[in-house]
């Protein structure tokens, strides 16, 4: 299938692109940075998703995965508005089969920088809106909302022993996800899943369910 993934230069986006390439799909990546992916079935466009005037003309996208995002850097513009731009431009077409938005557990819990939480919370609402509209094409639209993932974006706390210890206290599974695990979820929700739509699935090692119940 013809798959468009944003934010493919590193982290989750790169892992998703590699997963789809491994499974034999054609992958197009859009990122403001260069990509290191070397595969004949991969085409990379180095451009900011907010640059609407210069976004490439790409037809017949079958799977759109909105992964590009930032943290504490114009979060609402990039994480939410940019995602909306991409979806409205490439996601709504007669060939679309699935759209997946990469949100964050913070959109459910509010535990992050203020604009980051707001941007990811907006994705939850927009996912439902978009799911209703692409259902007319027989397509699904969901978000997967990770908690901690071992990506370069999270290195400030991953590499700080004190912060990491506190984070592990809040994470029942006592680890963070590998980008490849999130890529497996992305593949499942877009290729294998045909009926679940309009949902936002938290993937956080159980952090959101921890109640800190204490009893003497």
Question: Could you characterize what this model shows?
Answer:
With 216 residues, the chain is α/β, with parallel strands linked by helices. It has one domain: Rossmann fold. It contains 7 helices and 7 strands; from the N terminus they run βαβββαβααβαααβ. A 7-stranded parallel sheet has the order 3-2-1-4-5-6-7, sandwiched between helices. α1 packs across α7 and α2 runs parallel beside α4. The termini are far apart. The mean pLDDT is 96.
Summed up:
The chain is 38% helix and 17% strand. It has 216 residues and is of the alpha/beta class. Helix 1 (11-22) crosses helix 7 and helix 2 (75-91) packs parallel to helix 4 (114-134).
Oligomer: single chain
What is the CATH fold-level name? Rossmann fold
Q: Strands of the biggest beta sheet: in what spatial order?
A: 3-2-1-4-5-6-7
How many H/I helical runs? 7
Main beta-sheet strand count, sense and barrel state:
7 strands, parallel
Tell me roughly what share of residues is in helical segments. 25-40%
- CATH homologous superfamily, by name? NAD(P)-binding Rossmann-like Domain
Total discrete domains: 1
Q: How much of the polypeptide forms β-strand, as a percent range?
A: 15-25%
Task: Give the termini distance in whole angstroms.
Answer: 57 Å
The radius of gyration over CA amounts to: 17 Å
pLDDT below 50 for ≥5 consecutive residues: which ranges? none
Q: How many E-type strands?
A: 7
Overall geometry comes to globular
Helices and strands, in N-to-C order? EHEEEHEHHEHHHE
Class based on secondary structure composition and strand pairing: alpha/beta
Kindly provide the name of the CATH class: Alpha Beta
Q: Which CATH architecture?
A: 3-Layer(aba) Sandwich
């Amino acid at each position: 299938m013809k798959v468009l993934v944003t934010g493919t230069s590193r982290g989750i986006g790169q892992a998703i692109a590699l997963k789809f390439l491994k499974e034999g799909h054609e992958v197009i990546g859009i990122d403001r940075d260069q990509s290191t992916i070397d595969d004949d079935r991969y085409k990379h466009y180095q451009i900011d998703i907010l640059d609407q005037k210069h976004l490439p003309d790409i037809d017949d996208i079958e799977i759109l995965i909105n992964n590009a995002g930032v943290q504490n850097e114009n979060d609402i513009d990039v994480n939410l508005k940019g995602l909306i731009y991409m979806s409205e431009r490439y996601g709504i077409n007669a060939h679309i089969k699935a759209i997946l938005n990469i949100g964050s557990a913070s959109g459910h819990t509010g535990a992050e920088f203020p604009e980051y939480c707001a941007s990811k919370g907006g994705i939850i609402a927009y996912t439902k809106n978009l799911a209703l509209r692409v259902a007319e094409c027989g397509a699904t639209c969901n978000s997967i909302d990770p908690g901690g993932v071992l990506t370069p974006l999270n290195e400030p706390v991953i590499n700080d022993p004190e912060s990491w210890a506190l984070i592990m206290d809040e994470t029942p599974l006592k680890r963070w996800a590998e980008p490849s695990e999130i890529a497996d979820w992305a593949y499942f929700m877009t290729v294998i899943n045909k009926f679940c739509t309009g949902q936002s699935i938290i993937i956080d090692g159980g952090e959101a369910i921890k109640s800190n119940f204490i009893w003497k």
